[in-house]
Amino acid sequence: MQKLVDGIHRFQREAFSQDQKLFETLAEGQNPLALFITCSDSRIDPNRLTQTRPGELFIQRTAGNIVPPYGSVFGGEACTIEYAVMALKIRDIIICGHSHCGAMGGLLNPEAIKEMPAVQAYLQHAEATRRIVNENYKHLTDPDKRLTLTVEENVLVQLENLRTHPSVAAAVGRGDLKLHGWVYKFETGDVFGFDPEENAFLPVKDVSSPLTERVREMPPI
Ligand code: ZN
């Protein structure tokens, strides 16, 4: 804990004074570039990853970057999404999964979370991910590859969940909002975006390539 308090003092002494103008401007309001939905995992730093500054990213963090479908719960997720789209007029939403995701590990191995009823309940919003992986990718037995695939499929499933939110559906329909699916591999710094043309996650190169319009086609069984 002391490290955190020391960090605040150093921030006030050094970082704040260097950017004082920026911080003062933030009091006038916010106009973020995107809504960034990612996992609560401590190894992800959205601002550092995208080299953005305070005021530039509206961020929602949940276990496994899960977005409960509209109407299933009226919690913080629905509220954040609605506010981002309707009040802040966000033009882009990114759902960013990541390598070595503990939530996705729990999804594949329910035994590991059997004493965590809240986690179990929340992961129900990723049940489609679990079923897609278990039923359509039976041939994939390597645990690391299976987890990577689960992380990717879950990004696509959560994009589908995101589209059930009326504010998102309406704004996408008007062409005012674009949805993007990313996976961040923190041990290498790589970021992959889902490319619907290639039906695959490819290195993010420009804003047009990671556009996500539909879910990945499944392999033939
Ligand atoms: Zn995670």
Automatic annotation (TrEMBL):
<dbReference type="InterPro" id="IPR036874">
    <property type="entry name" value="Carbonic_anhydrase_sf"/>
</dbReference>
<feature type="binding site">
    <location>
        <position position="98"/>
    </location>
    <ligand>
        <name>Zn(2+)</name>
    </ligand>
</feature>
<dbReference type="GO" id="GO:0015976">
    <property type="term" value="P:carbon utilization"/>
</dbReference>
<comment type="similarity">
    <text>Belongs to the beta-class carbonic anhydrase family.</text>
</comment>
<feature type="binding site">
    <location>
        <position position="101"/>
    </location>
    <ligand>
        <name>Zn(2+)</name>
    </ligand>
</feature>
<keyword id="KW-0456">Lyase</keyword>
<dbReference type="InterPro" id="IPR001765">
    <property type="entry name" value="Carbonic_anhydrase"/>
</dbReference>
<feature type="binding site">
    <location>
        <position position="41"/>
    </location>
    <ligand>
        <name>Zn(2+)</name>
    </ligand>
</feature>
<comment type="function">
    <text>Reversible hydration of carbon dioxide.</text>
</comment>
<dbReference type="InterPro" id="IPR015892">
    <property type="entry name" value="Carbonic_anhydrase_CS"/>
</dbReference>
<protein>
    <recommendedName>
        <fullName>Carbonic anhydrase</fullName>
        <ecNumber>4.2.1.1</ecNumber>
    </recommendedName>
</protein>
<dbReference type="GO" id="GO:0004089">
    <property type="term" value="F:carbonate dehydratase activity"/>
</dbReference>
<keyword id="KW-0479">Metal-binding</keyword>
<dbReference type="GO" id="GO:0008270">
    <property type="term" value="F:zinc ion binding"/>
</dbReference>
<keyword id="KW-0862">Zinc</keyword>
<dbReference type="InterPro" id="IPR045066">
    <property type="entry name" value="Beta_CA_cladeB"/>
</dbReference>
<feature type="binding site">
    <location>
        <position position="39"/>
    </location>
    <ligand>
        <name>Zn(2+)</name>
    </ligand>
</feature>
<dbReference type="Pfam" id="PF00484">
    <property type="entry name" value="Pro_CA"/>
</dbReference>
